[in-house]
Amino acid sequence: MSSESGRVAVTSVMRWNGWGDPARASDLPRAVRMLLPLLLGRVQKPAPAVELAEVSLEPSSLRDDDRQALADVVGAERVDTSSEARIRHAGGRSTPDLLRRRERQQASPDAVVLPGSHDEVAALLRVCADRRIAVIPFGGGTSVVGALEPERGTHRAVVSLDLRRLSGLLRLDEVSGEATLAAGTTGPDAEALLAARGFELGHYPQSFRYATIGGFAAARSSGQSSAGYGRFDSMVTGLRVATPTGDIDLGRSPGSAAGPDLIRVFLGSEGIFGVITEVRVRVHRVPHDRLFEAWSFADFTQGVEGLRRVTQRGGGPTVLRLSDEAETAVSLAQLGRIGKALAKGASVITVYEGDDIAARRARTSAIFEAVGGVSSGERAAEDWLDGRFDGPYLRDSLLDAGVFCETLETATTWSNLLHLRAEVTAALRAGFEEVGARSYVMCHVSHVYPTGASLYFTVIANIRSDPLDTWAAVKGRANDAILAAGGTISHHHAVGRDHAAWLEQEIGETGVRILAAIKRELDPTCILNPGAVIPSDRSR
Amino acid sequence: MSSESGRVAVTSVMRWNGWGDPARASDLPRAVRMLLPLLLGRVQKPAPAVELAEVSLEPSSLRDDDRQALADVVGAERVDTSSEARIRHAGGRSTPDLLRRRERQQASPDAVVLPGSHDEVAALLRVCADRRIAVIPFGGGTSVVGALEPERGTHRAVVSLDLRRLSGLLRLDEVSGEATLAAGTTGPDAEALLAARGFELGHYPQSFRYATIGGFAAARSSGQSSAGYGRFDSMVTGLRVATPTGDIDLGRSPGSAAGPDLIRVFLGSEGIFGVITEVRVRVHRVPHDRLFEAWSFADFTQGVEGLRRVTQRGGGPTVLRLSDEAETAVSLAQLGRIGKALAKGASVITVYEGDDIAARRARTSAIFEAVGGVSSGERAAEDWLDGRFDGPYLRDSLLDAGVFCETLETATTWSNLLHLRAEVTAALRAGFEEVGARSYVMCHVSHVYPTGASLYFTVIANIRSDPLDTWAAVKGRANDAILAAGGTISHHHAVGRDHAAWLEQEIGETGVRILAAIKRELDPTCILNPGAVIPSDRSR
User: Fold this and answer.
1) Alpha-carbon gap, residue A188 to A210, rounded angstroms
2) Distance CA A179, CA A194 (A)
3) In Å, how far are B67, B79, B114, B130 from B76, measured between CA atoms?
4) pLDDT of A341 strictly over 70
């Protein structure tokens, strides 16, 4: 099934200890450098990051016979125990991940294994189950919730199962608008392959340039065009999954009442039940027309009212996002308009794609104006679109400058949105204050539903104590606040290991028992991603 | 939680051995009586149906101490072992169910128990698990797939758990557009309670007048306005469920990546994992405007092309259904236009509700005309709306006249739709031919998705052999054809017992193992709806 012939390579190799293409990394914009002391006081530069060659790993605990058994499936050259491969698969791209990449001694998987087909994945899982080797499925490596930590559970070794060779457009049903993609296909590769046939998937999370189709499914991703095309969950019409105890092919029809929808058991399963190898998705014709418009609201509350009315009305924008006052100010600063930086107000970005865009914009404009919004023209929306995947580069620059920067996100109903935002903001601020760190908390809404919306927080802080410990405590307070105030522990970043301890508060003891029961059935030796989603003590 | 104060009683008690309100039952329309001999030859009248008082049941196998233990939870008057109550809960409303209601000796549950709250449901499940009494959750009694058969599995008794007292609108969040309804609330009660506050759910399956909100969830129902408001699955934002081993409350936010969506484990679970006691649903403001338009296409193929283009374009009708040539002919006959009855062509009904209806109709009309459709005005669409819940009454009249009548349904992608229809039609015809029964097979599309659509078959036949045996064989052939031709075993009727033997072909052995693992965890003594969804030999 590896259709490498049809593959279009447009994805570069990601920086090992930061985000994205090393060539695109940059210094802090001047405006940000000027703003930081105002927001956070004087920041101390950290020790320089280590070079890849300076990193020290434990020796691989794979035995020769393990290596041979894995090589028997994929070939010896695809069982990589080099330090570089192991370091590159040592984690994801949360800020704690990146901080850990700055240390000399690092944890890593014992090998990286590169299967080339569904059948090779299935065979590797059987080998690893037999030999009690833990397996961490690895797509684009962009997890920000600790889903890729090389945790071996009770096993003697752990391998990273890199799915990059499962890449390509396997089938396209142009009549039905359905595409089957190999799970390791990256966002840009998928869109390039589809675009060559006149189609688009339309899923653009911030991780788009590196993350994979299988990762989007496993983590229940949501993209920037979700107002128009829905979250990734809603795009998936079929899945093929290899588990240690058998394969499963799901999704015979666009709607069904043939028992519970088992696709949903694997969406969000983050590699703990099996490895997704193929994903069938709904696709649409590449839209030809596009309109941009930015709006300014008096404050976040007014902006939320505008978003709610537009969303409940329907037939609005493809992209719809609202930045609160704090984020609006800094976004303007980034664009070099430092003079206006601390102006009041909350900004909204709208992008319209596809059919009826003029009517959809007119409808949206009427609602926004009725609520008190003022159009600020196309420019800011176009600028946002140009830079929309570049946020993580800015984080790298901030970390290099000694500024802690991280994000977290949740969602709730419209009626609870302002309360949830206030509680999480307060928890973040209080957490940093407790260790005497000045912080600046920003928030935006970027995913909307008829009944509610997401909240995405970006926080920067001037931490003088240990940043990993400090953030663990602050993040814990934020998680507690989210659950106490009725939010979900994650809207689209997933559970990973970072949120696993909070999941039971969300889905209850009975919910955790359901997940553990499925896990025992499909992965009885518990080799798959130990400790992710279900805390280790609950998964046996 | 039983908010009977807020209850609006608009649902009548259903006829015990047929559909609906006895006062609405009617003789066959004259046009149908004239048409039947042409389609099926001369039909023999069956023996008259038995009266309720003539039905003989096995004595209740509940012991006195069982009865007392149940009465301790709900009160003695709510443990009903009368013959009438037991007969009224002896099954659903499939044609085989109705044929069995014509026999003197009938199987039935040993008692009907009527809990009044979530906590009473939970307590009853514990009592029944302790005493090894099987439990059949019972909503409106409208299952057409054998989900309500009084199967006791390996247990010594079986009770019907009638949820009618769990009725009412428990909460309405007007800002978010979310309503929480008690699971036993019927469709009309739910809409009346919501309408009093200016809201609508918009879920109108043919069973609407009797079926319950919990049943819609448990069976993954889909209603006639699904083109506009989606299938019931997509309306559900939260669930409360009692299981024999613990409660679960699901749905903290409109979108989430907090592990797999466990709501989807219970949607379609048909009472085998637990009893749904509350359902939170997305609601919308009652639409004020409505437009009707019927269309005529040269044939079913052309009509399908029209539906596909309209659906993939988006922003079309609220109701969209296409009858094939055979169904179009008979529908016209029912309306008394016998002269035109055998005219060629396939008819489409469209209804537009809510916002932008003129623009949506214009858009749809342009597509239909481009494909070759011709508008036939408002009348036929209005007539359809008036009679849309009355199909089951016609079936009763046909059965009384000796004409077998039953429905079945499936779904697939647009590219496979004509193939699937041809294969199922051929299987039905061949099945009846084999026993020398003349038959007439009709089909419509009533649920559309960007990637595909449903197929709903209505078959009438002149069966001279045993109708139950004959239909079991014919239906088996149709099920085989559905799965061989890529369809789902059910689009919205669910699995029940009638489809359980085919489920493994659809979801695979691994899929059945997942369901069985969840069942073992939540219902270890296997008291809940034994034999439904998962064949009995697979659920332990």
Assistant:
1) 8
2) 8
3) 8, 6, 10, 19
4) no
Specify the 3-state DSSP secondary structure of B146.
coil
The distance of Cα A371 from the centroid of its chain, to the nearest Å, equals 32
Of A254, A266, A488, the CB nearest to B413: A254
Q: Is pLDDT above 80 for A1?
A: no
Residues of B with CB below 8 A from A245's CB?
510, 513
ipTM of the complex model: 0.96
- pLDDT mean over B306-313: 98
CB A115 within 8 A of CB A165: yes
Q: HEC string of B40-66?
A: HCCCCCCCCCCCHHHCECCCCCCCHHH
pLDDT at A7: 40
Sheet containing strand B246-250, edge to edge, reads B169-173, B178-182, B275-282, B236-243, B246-250
pLDDT band at B390 (very low <50, low <70, confident <90, very high): confident
Rounded to two decimals, what is the model's pTM?
A: 0.96
Residue A124 and residue A111 in contact, taking contact as beta carbons nearer than 8 Å: no
Give the total residue count for chain B.
540
Q: How far is Cα A399 from Cα A402, in angstroms, rounded to an integer? A: 5
Confidence bin at B331 (pLDDT 50/70/90) = confident
Quick check: A536 pLDDT over 90?
Answer: no
Residue A93 in 3-state DSSP?
Answer: coil
Q: For A380-437, where are the E strands, in sequence order?
A: 404-413
Quote the pLDDT of residue B325.
Answer: 95
pLDDT, tens digit, for every residue of B138-164? 999 999 999 999 999 999 999 999 999
Of A254, A266, A451, Cβ closest to residue B254: A451
pLDDT value for B341: 43
3-state helix, strand, coil in chain A (%, to 5): 40, 20, 40
Say how far apart CA B240 and CA B250 lie, in whole Å: 6
CB A266 within 8 A of CB A214: no
pLDDT of residue A343 exceeding 80: no
Identity at A34, one-letter amino acid code:
M
Return the bridge partners of B186, or none: B212
Give the whole-angstrom CA distance, residue A161 versus residue A166. Answer: 11
Closest-CA distance, B103 to chain A, in angstroms, reads 30
CA end-to-end span of chain A? 34
Q: CB burial class (10 A; 0-12, 13-18, 19+) of residue B387?
A: middle
Measured between beta carbons, which residues in chain B are less than 8 angstroms from residue A219? Answer: 257
Tell me which residue of A294, A282, A247, A284 sits closest to A266, measured CA to CA. Answer: A247
B180: tokens are: 């929480």
The pLDDT of residue B260: 98
Phi and psi based region of residue A252 (left: phi greater than 0; alpha: psi -120 to 50; beta: remaining): alpha
Q: How far is A451 from chain B (nearest CA, A)?
A: 5
Which residues in B460-478 are b (16+ Cβ under 10 Å) and which e? Answer: bbbbeeebeebbeebbebb
Tokens found for residue B411: 């779904």
User: Is the pLDDT confidence value at B35 over 70?
Assistant: yes
pLDDT tens across A217-245, in order?
999 999 999 999 999 999 999 999 999 99
With CA atoms as reference, the chain A residue closest to B256 would be: A491
Q: Which of B67, B182, B69, B192 is nearest to B116 (CA)?
A: B182
